[in-house]
Amino acid sequence: NSIFNFCAGPAMLPREVMQQAQQEFLDWQGLGCSVMEVSHRSPEYIAMAKEAEQDLRELLSISDDYAVLFMHAGGRGQFFSIPMNLMPQGGVADHVVTGSWSRGAVKECQKYGQAKVVTDITYQGNNRGIAPQSEWQLSDNAAYLHYCPNETVEGVEFDYVPQVDAPLVADMSSCILSRQINVNDFGLIYAGAQKNIGPSGLAIVIVRKDLLGKARSDTPSIFDYQQQFKLDSMLNTPPTYAWYLAGLVFKWLKAQGGVAAVEEKNIAKAKLLYDFIDECDFYENRVVKHYRSRMNVPFYLADEALNDKFLQESKQAGLLALKGHRMVGGMRASIYNAMPIEGVKALTQFMADFAKKNG
Ligand code: PLP
After folding, report:
1. 236 annotated among ligand-binding-site residues
2. 224 labelled binding-site residue
3. Was domain 16-255 assigned CATH 3.90.25.10?
4. Ligand 1 pocket mutation, candidates 78, 146, 152, criterion most atoms within 8 A of CB
5. How far apart are CA 32 and CA 179, in angstroms?
6. For the modification N6-(pyridoxal phosphate)lysine, which residues carry it (predicted)?
7. Which of 76, 180, 195, 237 is most buried (most C-beta within 10 Å)?
8. Are 208 and 166 in contact (CB under 8 A)?
9. How far, in Å, CA of 4 to CA of 14, rounded?
10. CATH ID of 257-358, from 3.90.1150.10, 3.40.225.10, 3.40.50.720, 3.30.310.10
């Protein structure tokens, strides 16, 4: 009777985390009220907030050279915060476009300076991928290079970290904590929380400290990295419940054995699903093999007239939210950290049965 939720975001969170949150909902730390009802300036809240940051630092081995910020306005909030904080007036920022989200970042950046698209892989039918770095038209004077290691909509994921002179800025909204990274490779990493971290609205920003203090004078204070860093991300009231829940997810990840252990599980889950799709003529994935996302698996039915039936019956079978993004159509199974392998097994079993009955 299990329900497995394949939503791309807000996405399924670990059941253990949700159960703990439920238990403490009305009485957090014996205070007789919810964490949602506690001042962010209280010693209890500040201790929890610091511990969450510390746990994230441990999970990703983040050194003291980096600030960790808990910001407002989700992933998209960073699309403008980054140019406002890192790009001088009239400056240029290089952008690698590999799908919808990296394209979205370009549009927003253009409001603040020159967003130079150094490569643009638009939707390429059966052959979605990433142009080799040797073909990128890099600027000499870019304030940074922005890219999206995992494109949530197209299911395209980098299997390497670009090597460029400019500080590397990565939108890790849909892949943070899913695989091991070396934070030192990046100038700035950011992620909207609602996939691998917690509730939407919160964004985590990990920024090298030498990049702080360069914000344009018209940057709103709550989006100014330097000001937020100085005030422990509490310049105003932070998204307190989201921060608390993120803290529970970080503890859960540590209990799982950390990012390395979770990455192994993610590799196994993705392999199970892609192998099944590749072996069954009834389904198709259209991404070049080594750029296939471990987190978001788009797939198409051979007969697209069966899409509605597939969605209806999968929902009845407890497999939720498999509809692909409207921009690319088809289906999409998002299999973030919280998705157990049992969920992927249930999905492939359903897909096999559906193919048999309708093929
Ligand atoms: N970047 C990526 C890669 C995403 O997948 C998303 C949302 O799905 C966003 C940015 C935007 O995040 P938000 O909705 O929190 O603004």
Report:
1. yes
2. no
3. no
4. 152
5. 38
6. 195
7. 195
8. no
9. 11
10. 3.90.1150.10
Domain residue limits, the chain: 16-255, 257-358
Burial class (CB in 10 A: 0-12, 13-18, 19+), 281: exposed
State pTM to two decimals: 0.98
Which atom of ligand 1 is found nearest the CA of 79?
10
Nearest CA to ligand 1 atom 3: 173
Nearest to 184 by CA among 304, 288, 316, 60: 60
Q: Could you list the active site residues?
A: 101, 171, 195
Ligand 1: lining residues by beta carbon, under 6 Å: 9, 74-76, 101, 148, 152, 171, 173-174, 192, 200
- CATH topology of 16-255 equal to that of 257-358? no
Sequential pLDDT tens for the chain (359 residues): 589 999 999 999 999 999 999 999 999 999 999 999 999 999 999 999 999 999 999 999 999 999 999 999 999 999 999 999 999 998 999 999 999 999 999 999 999 999 999 999 766 667 788 888 999 999 999 999 999 999 999 999 999 999 999 999 999 999 999 999 999 999 999 999 999 999 999 999 999 999 999 999 999 999 999 999 999 999 999 999 999 999 999 999 999 999 999 999 999 999 999 999 999 999 999 999 999 999 999 999 999 999 999 999 999 999 999 999 998 999 999 999 999 999 999 999 999 999 999 98
ipTM for this prediction: 0.99
